[in-house]
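Why predict the complex rather than its parts? Because the way molecules touch one another can change local conformation, and only a joint prediction can capture that. The input here totals 717 residues.
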Amino acid sequence: MAYSELIKNFNRIREYMREFYVYGFKSREEYTKKSARSYDDERRRVESWLGDYMQFRQTPDGKNVFLSIDSRISRHNPLYKAWKAKSFTDGDITLHFLLFDILHSPDVRLSLHEITGEIDERLLSFPEPRLFDESTVRKKLREYISEGIVLAEKCGKTMYYRRSDSPELPDTDLLDFFSEVAPCGVIGSYLLDKTQAHDDRFAFKHHYITGALDSEILCTLLTAIGEKRTVTMETVNRHRDRTAEKRVVPLCVMVSVQNGRQYLMAYVPRYQRITSFRIDYIVSVQPEDICEEFDALREKLRDMLPHMWGVSTQSVSEHRMEHVEFTVRYGDDEMHIHRRLEREKRCGIVERLDANTSRFSADLFDAGEIVPWIRTFLCRITEIHFSDQALEEQFRNDIDDMMRLYFPEGGDTP
Amino acid sequence: MIFSELYGVYYNTVAKVLRTAVCRPLPKDELRTIIMQNAFGESMLTIEPSLTEERWQLLRQDGTTPICHIPIMPLTLLEKRWLKAICMDPRIRLFGDDLPDFPDVEPLFRPEDVIVFDRYADGDPYDDEKYIRHFRLILDAIRKQYPLKMDVQNRKGSVTYLVMQPDHLEYSEKDDKFRLIGDGSRYGGTVNLGRIVSCKPYPKPFVPDPGKRREKINRTVTFELLDQRNALERVLLHFAHFEKQAERIADDRYRVTVTYEKEDETELVIRILSFGPMVRVTAPQHFVNLIKDRLIRQKSCGL
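Output of the joint prediction:
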């Protein structure tokens, strides 16, 4: 098939864009194990959509393509552009504009026959007018009814169609802001496309944009959560070389604003437990029946949250609960350290032991999740204790390894 | 359906083409300009011939159109559901009290459906009336470009007075705070909205001192990363929001260069420390020394 910058299916480009944006060190040869043409087409598409952000680097292994985006500078998520590249037929676009021209106001109500007649009349001025039969027009109208942009009303035996009402769009500042920070923000970007050009008044710091690529999956999951439905989903493993099908009850979405990952928290009937799934590892979601136990399961998850540092509900040690505590010491001019503990803790307790010492403690399902945060206090940790001895040993060994990394000869150490 | 041509660049571009053609015949060069300004890099290759060769029978050879009205598409159900969902967000009141209402539509999500689990606990008070008033005034001042006078509480608790020409607002999802970025302030052109005690329009003419303009100073840090315990993915996702470059230097080793703002250096040091021995900073030397200093101090803690 001839190359087109538009695409029918989002999944393949989703993977390429993630690779180009998050990783960006692979050469063409590494992508082309499956198909060189596929790589060339996808790279060309991404370049067409996001040319300003695309960069190239020549390495001994070949030419590397990557997307370099400083999300603090770009006021709108550039990855949203990919969602605006859905392919369509010549008939689709022609019919779209004709239909909404004919149904130009919510007051215009017409039957299928009348609409088809109006279409024919408008196209008569072309030398070779395109013909749309009633079944094609009916199919398109049905599609638009499900999208909520056309309404159907039966009068006697005849169905009449009209466009739905168009409420005024909210302020562009509101859309600019929420299109970047709200789940499925791409929908806000769609709304912004309907507005006039305007100055952007918001910038974003610590702004992770990769989740945009998972918008369709997220949207389907949120709809299933709203309807309390079980879903069947297809997931890939971390190395993306194996897929699996899972039947789960989605309970909520957990989002990290410190690494941009989005997780689905779901009950897995097969294992009778609540667990997390990376949303970027979900390939497809199929809504199923309504789950009668949804409210009780969500309540159960809510009770678990005070013992979750991240999204893990089970430790490697296989103990139900693990205890962790550590003590930090700070100078008279470093009182912000205690405030940091208070501000950054997600659960657990912070105690002030004296004017210059504070202790954090928590009982967690998986104490391994808190280790990166504890390391951010390196230079002032005076005591640390994990109920999981192996974890404590690893923590201490990691500090020794860091010392060896930065002081290979032991030279600069005191 | 979120992935639909209804929201696509092509439909939006053609709507813009027709907006003009409804009023007057559209010359080809103007058609090209609209496509270039609104569509993708290579869209010209498709949109122009599709219209001019009448595969999309929306534009005639003479630049007129069979379309009689300016094309406007109603809001889709998905758009209404999203708008209804964001109207339940506590930050929505910052933007006014007159919000869209869709009584017959279910929100796409409710606040309890999405949990941000690692946001800092001392975010801005979005339900505080004074905060809301300040936010709205600041946004208005940015729109209309007038200066503001403010009393701001500093870190030590004392209140300082400043005048500022506001430029834009910056929001951090991690801190859950807004900062006003502008010119003219003695304190670096950045004010945390949560620290503003009072805020009013500055009624006199105000010319910001160019010497006090907020200047971004970018720095880079380069580190090597050992891909164990899934470090490659964790590190690259963690630093994804920065401008960065990554290259493979051995089978399980990578070199990553991150560009950051100087004012965020301490934050970057602790973020790198959080990855433990999986990451080793190699340049610049002053950054290496910052890490070394922390390790030396840690060693002296007697752990």
